[in-house]
Task: inverse folding
């Protein structure tokens, strides 16, 4: 009887220790998987944050976004006007009207965050490239690309544009524009 009890005690102890070690290794594995998932999410967030400022060419000339304004039509459509490095910072953005400067202009149906394919059904609502008066080039309309509104908060709207008419008229990058309505 002592032998049976001893064998049973050894057998029970070994099962107990084996089950404990399996649990801890499972917990360790789960912790490692959770840490890896967190690291991957952080890397994805960093990649998303690394979008360059909106830049490209308008009328064959280099163009870099500096500031922009958004107005609203009676039907609620938003009108975005994005100006480059030439815009006068002494003028409040909502008072800025630079017809002589290179700029881009486009329409979005509402403040809804989302992706808007280019060109739009109505060509005049697509991203349009306006060269500077000194360049003298004609206005061009994007034939491909997207406008993505990524954030609508308070008086600003943030987004990312990747739009192209041709090799002399294209922009890629992020912008933040001010609501003027």
Result:
């Amino acid at each position: 009887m002592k032998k049976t009890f001893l064998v049973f005690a050894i057998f029970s102890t070994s099962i107990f220790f084996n089950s404990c070690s399996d649990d801890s290794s499972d917990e360790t594995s789960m912790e490692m998987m959770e840490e890896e998932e967190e690291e991957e999410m952080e890397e994805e967030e960093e990649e998303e944050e690394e979008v360059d400022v909106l830049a490209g060419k308008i009328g064959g000339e280099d163009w870099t976004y500096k500031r922009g304004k958004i107005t609203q039509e009676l039907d609620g459509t938003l009108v975005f006007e994005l100006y480059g490095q030439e815009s006068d910072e002494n003028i409040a953005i909502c008072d800025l009207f630079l017809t002589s400067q290179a700029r881009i202009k486009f329409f979005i149906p509402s403040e809804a965050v989302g992706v808007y394919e280019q060109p739009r059904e109505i060509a005049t609502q697509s991203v349009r490239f306006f060269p500077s008066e000194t360049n003298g080039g004609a206005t061009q309309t994007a034939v491909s690309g997207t406008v993505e509104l990524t954030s609508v908060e308070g008086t600003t709207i943030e987004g990312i544009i990747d739009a192209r008419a041709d090799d002399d008229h294209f922009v890629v990058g992020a912008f933040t524009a001010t609501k003027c309505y």
